[in-house]
Amino acid sequence: MINKTFKCVSLYFVVRVNIKFETSHEREVVFYILSDHIFFFKNFTPFKFIFPSDEENVFYIYGELSSLFSVFPVEAKVRKFVSPVKISYVMLFQPKLIKLPKEKELDMMYMGTEPNGSGKIEINEFLEVLIEYEGEKEKAIVSAIKKTIEKSKREFDEIIRKERIARHI
Could you read off the pLDDT tens digit of each residue along the chain, which spans 169 residues? Predict the structure, then answer.
């Protein structure tokens, strides 16, 4: 008798990208500021709409991303984990997580399909960012996040300076 075991292999690729923030500000202060999910997602990701949840450290994000041939909506449930050495945003991408206004739902009829998948964004104490995603439209999602971070990275010190002033840090 031959015993064969098969390992279930995902149909999707895992896409990983590493980015390092360089700053003249104190790392501890920048790390503290980046742990604010509203600040991080509005300034460093293409997901500009952030909705609260009843659960602690859970929120929802929405954005419209584009691929080579279409624009598609992206919704995700995000759980935030913060430790002294790492901030993790674990994301579950699914359609229909958020109740959108009627006019937005009509717009979505003309867009591409929403992706399913899971991913995470980790920021360590050395201000290195790891973006990881597995699921539908993996390259489009990861490259959209990477492009937004790269664009914001050019003005990183200025963004942090303004936030320090606003928070009196």
Answer: 343 333 444 566 778 888 898 889 898 999 999 999 999 999 999 988 899 988 999 999 998 887 777 788 889 999 999 999 999 999 999 888 777 666 665 565 666 777 888 999 999 989 899 999 888 888 888 888 899 999 988 888 898 999 888 888 7
Q: Range of 85's domain?
A: 14-167
Is residue 4 in some structural domain? no
Q: Which residue has the tokens 């050019």?
A: 154
Backbone angles phi, psi at 154, to 5 degrees: -60, -30
Number of domains comprising the chain: 1
Residue 57 lies in a domain: yes
Beta bridge partners of 15: 133
The CATH number of the domain holding residue 108 is 3.30.530.20
Return the ∠ at Cα 49 (arms to 25 and 81), rounded to 5°.
Answer: 55
In angstroms, the CA 126 to CA 81 distance is 17
